[in-house]
Design goal:
Number of helices of chain B: 0
Order of helices and strands of chain B: EEEEEEEEEEE
Structural class of chain B: mainly beta
Order of helices and strands of chain A: EEEEEEEEEEE
Distance between the termini of chain A: 40 Å
Helix content of chain A: under 10%
Largest sheet of chain B: 7 strands, mixed
Number of strands of chain B: 11
Oligomer: heterodimer
Radius of gyration of chain A: 14 Å
Number of strands of chain A: 11
C-alpha cells in the first residue's frame, strides 16, 4: 500500500539545523508531488512548500524562504526537508504529504506521513 | 493569501445527530480546490473530501461537502462515536495553500 514514513523525533538548540526524511513506497515516486506541512498548537496547520520528485525547483512558503530546503533522492524514493537557523517557534510536528486530486502542482494531500516532532529549546 | 475561517470552534453532539461545519474564505475559491480533513489526536490529518464534494477513497457516505465561492460546508449525516475529531478545510488552488483553524467535534 501507499506509505510515507518519516524519520524520528528531533531535539535541537536554537540556531541549529534539522533534516527530516520522508521515505515513500507503494507508488511511482516521480508521479506525485510531495508537500511539507507543519502543525503547532498556536498556528495550526501551515503549508511549508512543495517539491516535484521528477525534477524542477521546489516552491517554498514565502515566510520560510531562505531557511528551508527540500530535496529528493530518486534512488531511494525519499524526500528531505531541511530547516536552518531554528528558533523556539519552529517547534512543531512536521508532516510530508502526497499531492493528488488536482492539476499539476495544485493538488490536495491524499496520503500523509506519520509526523516528526521537532523540539527547539536551549 | 486566502484566509479560511471555520465555525463553530467546538460542537458537542450526540450519536446519530446531523452535523454541519462551515468554512468561509476571505476571497473566492475555485470549488475544484477545496478540501476537508479529519484529524484524531495523535494522528496525521486524513483526507475526507476534495474538490468541494468528492469523497476520498474509503470515506463513508455519511460525509458530504458542498458550497461555492467563499462559503463551503462539511456535513456529517449521522454522527458516529469515531467521528470525534478536529475537522479542517483547506484551499489548494492558490499559493500558499492554506487551512482553516479547525472545528472540534465532541461526542456527548
Amino acid at each position: 500500500q501507499v506509505q510515507l514514513v518519516q524519520s524520528g523525533a528531533e531535539i535541537k538548540k536554537p540556531g541549529a539545523s534539522v533534516r527530516v526524511s520522508c521515505k515513500t513506497s507503494g507508488y511511482t515516486f516521480t508521479n506525485y508531488y510531495i508537500h511539507w506541512v507543519r502543525q503547532t498548537p498556536g498556528q495550526g496547520l501551515e503549508w511549508m512548500g512543495i517539491i516535484n520528485p521528477s525534477g524542477g525547483g521546489p516552491n517554498y512558503a514565502q515566510n520560510l524562504q531562505g531557511r528551508v530546503t527540500m530535496t529528493r533522492d530518486t534512488s531511494t524514493s525519499t524526500v528531505y526537508m531541511e530547516m536552518s537557523s531554528l528558533r523556539s517557534e519552529d517547534s512543531a510536528v512536521y508532516y510530508c504529504a502526497r499531492g493528488a486530486y488536482g492539476s499539476g502542482s495544485y493538488g490536495t494531500f491524499d496520503i500523509w506521513g506519520q509526523g516528526t516532532v521537532v523540539s527547539v529549546s536551549s | 493569501e486566502i484566509v479560511l475561517t471555520q465555525s463553530p470552534g467546538t460542537l458537542s453532539l450526540s450519536p446519530g445527530e446531523r452535523v454541519t461545519l462551515s468554512c468561509r474564505a476571505s476571497q473566492s475559491v475555485n470549488s475544484d480546490y477545496l478540501a476537508w480533513f479529519q484529524q484524531i489526536p495523535g494522528q496525521a490529518p486524513r483526507l475526507l473530501i476534495y474538490a468541494t464534494s468528492s469523497r476520498a477513497t474509503g470515506i463513508p457516505d455519511r460525509f458530504s461537502g458542498s458550497g461555492s465561492g467563499t462559503d463551503f460546508t462539511l456535513t456529517i449525516a449521522r454522527l458516529e462515536p469515531e467521528d470525534s475529531a478536529v475537522y479542517y478545510c483547506q484551499q489548494y488552488g492558490s499559493s500558499p495553500r492554506t487551512f482553516g483553524q479547525g472545528t472540534k467535534v465532541e461526542i456527548k
